[in-house]
């Protein structure tokens, strides 16, 4: 059964955004261990030069990874933040980024692209897919949140109830990828908060006073 989400923009590169059912049907890079980092809502990126660079206990704190190492599978976890998978199919360089609002404002997506360029990628050839994340209609923020953004970012906020706004995270992520001169961007346009049968959502679980441990995992691999 195939239940994970894919982006046609990434073509044949092994990748997938999981659902509550996991990565059912994902057949890319079987038996290859997944590389992960300790995600801390930072703008830090780690370059990977092999399939098993560290143990689970040694995972560095970062929110994105890049590699040009064949046989490497990168994985990040999210529950409302935007997972972004990237590839330059010509240079054979991949990346995976966890872009919550803090990381996005801090430059995690630009830093990921820059790290890919450092491994030989070309910005116009990079393809980036924004996976399932919270949609603007369900992302209410207050004045303190709004003030963390510049007036130039006003397009990503719509008016909400008094003293509140609705923030468009996937559009903002796409904007930051555009600032990084990424050649191609795809938003799969799936709302984690609004689809409770298919996706975990930290914000939805908090609002409902339900357990908040559920996470999606997003993976991308570079075949040998």
TrEMBL record:
SUPFAM superfamilies in the cross-refs: CNF1/YfiH-like putative cysteine hydrolases
Pfam families noted in UniProt: Cu-oxidase_4
The entry's keywords: Hydrolase, Metal-binding, Transferase, Zinc
A molecular-function term among this protein's GO annotations: copper ion binding
Catalytic activity: S-methyl-5'-thioadenosine + phosphate = 5-(methylsulfanyl)-alpha-D-ribose 1-phosphate + adenine; adenosine + H2O + H(+) = inosine + NH4(+); adenosine + phosphate = alpha-D-ribose 1-phosphate + adenine; inosine + phosphate = alpha-D-ribose 1-phosphate + hypoxanthine
InterPro entries: Cu_polyphenol_OxRdtase, Cu_polyphenol_OxRdtase_sf, Cytotoxic_necrot_fac-like_cat
Top-level taxon of the source organism: Bacteria
Similarity comment: family membership: Belongs to the purine nucleoside phosphorylase YfiH/LACC1 family.
Stored NCBIfam families: peptidoglycan editing factor PgeF
Protein name, entry field: Purine nucleoside phosphorylase
Species of the source: Pontixanthobacter rizhaonensis
Name of the gene: pgeF
